[in-house]
Amino acid sequence: MARNRVKVPKKRRNHLPLRLNLLFFIVFILFATLIFRLGVVQIVNGELIAREVQKTESSKIKYEVPRGKIYDRNGQVLADTISNYSVMYRRSQVTKTEERLEVAIKLAEIVDVPEKDRKVTERDRKDYWIAIDPERSQERVQNLLADLSEEERAALSNQDVDQLLLDSITDAEITFDDATEEIIAIKHNMESGYALDPQVIKIGASPKEMALIEENLELLPGVSVEPYYQRDYPFGETFQSFLGSYRQIPAEQRASYQAKGYGLNDRVGTSYLEQQYEDVLRGTPAYDVFTTYKGEPVGEPTRVSGNPGKDIILSTDIEFQKEIDEILKKAIRAGRSGSPHFDRAFAVVMNPQTGELLALSGQELDYETNKFKDVSTGTVLRASQIGSTIKGATVAFGLEEEVIQPGEYIYDTPIRIGSSLKSSYRNMGNINDLDALALSSNIYMFQIALRLADYYSTGQIVGENVTEAFNTMEHYYKQFGLGIETGIDLPYESIGFRSVPDRVTLLMDMSIGQFISYTPIQLAQYTSTLANGGYRIQPHLLKEIIEPGSLDEANKQVVSTFQPNALNKVDIRDEFLQRARQGFRQGVESGTSRILQQTGITAAGKTGTAQAIAEGPDGQAKRNANGEPIKTLNSNHVGWAPYDDPEIAWAIIMPGLEAEGINTRVAHDIMKAYFDLEDVQAQIQ
Hints:
Blueprint: H1 16-44, H2 46-55, E1 56-63, E2 70-71, E3 77-89, H3 97-108, H4 122-132, H5 134-146, H6 150-154, H7 158-168, H8 178-190, E4 199-202, H9 207-215, E5 223-232, H10 240-243, E6 246-248, H11 254-259, E7 267-269, H12 272-276, H13 278-282, E8 286-293, E9 296-304, E10 311-314, H14 318-335, E11 344-350, E12 357-366, E13 371-374, H15 378-381, H16 391-400, E14 410-412, E15 415-417, E16 420-422, E17 429-431, H17 433-439, H18 442-452, H19 455-458, H20 464-479, H21 504-511, H22 520-531, E18 535-537, E19 542-546, E20 558-561, E21 566-569, H23 574-589, E22 604-613, E23 631-641, E24 648-655, H24 662-674
Parallel strand pairs: 2-10
Antiparallel strand pairs: 1-8, 2-3, 3-4, 3-5, 6-7, 8-9, 10-19, 11-12, 11-24, 12-13, 14-17, 15-16, 18-21, 19-20, 22-23, 23-24
Helix pairs in contact: 1-2, 3-8, 5-7, 14-24, 16-18, 16-23, 17-23, 18-21
């Protein structure tokens, strides 16, 4: 009997895994191909493609704009900007050495570069020797390499080979005639700085040279005639040192200026006011922005306009400055008799209410040539011992510290401390604080220092009491501006010479302006602080910043005005500051500054004589035949006028002046000059 069979349906094969595997394989092949192509692009053709990308890019050519002018307070130009049409060169990014040499040779036939303006180094001459005859240079290299072993040749880099060639060129081979030297100088200028940056070939091209260049521009790629801006100083050396320098960026500062967007060959202010206000005076350069293909410009450029630098107006009065310069010159000549080491003098005049600096003068006489040199920057850089001019601050803090009382009498007689005998220039007998300032008593100041150091209670000549007293005295002196930066708007200033006394006798010296040295600008700030009632005002040269060409009052466009800035108020009670002010006033009425009465203007003043070491022009101590420092005196003066509402305060320092009376005569003549006192006789002729 036949069996009935159950038919089991066959299991259907699933083709999905096979298809997925095939898909993954195809994706893998595609990715592998892509990676392979990227590798080819990056490794094999990367440099070629990079060059192709670089063929087309955006570049820009920079053009100078006029630098801002500097005026005095009355609108007289102190630093002008003048334009000289000059020969310039801009090399493209792909210009070859032989192409630059060809342009240099053609330019040398057109322009005359004076020998004094040529900057040619030994390396420039050797580079020219190599470039002028490449076949000869290559032959020289082959001969040099032939003299080396195979191992030595293998160890040489391309740079080593270049140096080998340079070293082989002899002095005789790079001794050229004048015409060739001019070509080398032009090529040197062409290769300075970056591509597309302007390189100066010649400043001040003649009309004939400009015409010839214009006619031959097609043969002179990269050459142009453009305005080149330079500084001009209508008042010559007067105040010029404070205006500062404007020149190519110093090598040590290139990195910092490049970070600000400057070019390698740009010019900047490198000292004093030019440096301080570089950002204001510079302006914004103009640019031609264009597309380059293979390093060469394509099409017409787009001009991006620049802006000339802003003008600045100073607080200085240049005519007054000239008068102060002459007063100091006359004083130096008048004081030479009996003062063999007196050859320089300094004076600072400022408004004690606003801090405006009206004059900063320094004059030095060269005994050999009998000519004067302007050393005005010494008013902020050179420190001297200021002598008794400091006594106003000493009396003021003595009252504040209550080691003396207002009107207290002290008997002026010599004091012996150990083996040291200290005295005033004469025994003055019983005097109070005002008399001490008017007559310039040393003993009164010594007593303040001794009491501050608690000397009479402890009898200690050295120790903590001396250190604490010094710290207290220095604290007060700094509040007046002595021993710290004044804040003058210049890139740098000296803070003077600081020493720490290790015994009470040096503390006594410090109280009368010995032992520690200060600059004339610090002394002027101190005097102004007394004059205005205790506010240490920042001295400043900047008065206003204005838009270029808007000096005329009717059209003046003021960008900013320097506002008076009180750096601190002296931490001494007003009544004690007033005692010091009265002492200075009494010095004019009946003391050492009586000559100022002849001006007819109420004034306050204080003389100051300090023992010092004679210094040479280099600032180093002069020495006698035994090698010992030569001792001399400094003669100084400070004051202000009018007394109640001061317009000017002055500080005068005359190192090496041993003659009496000249310091006060200088102060007298400064007042005469400022207040235009035509009917008052000058004291120094």
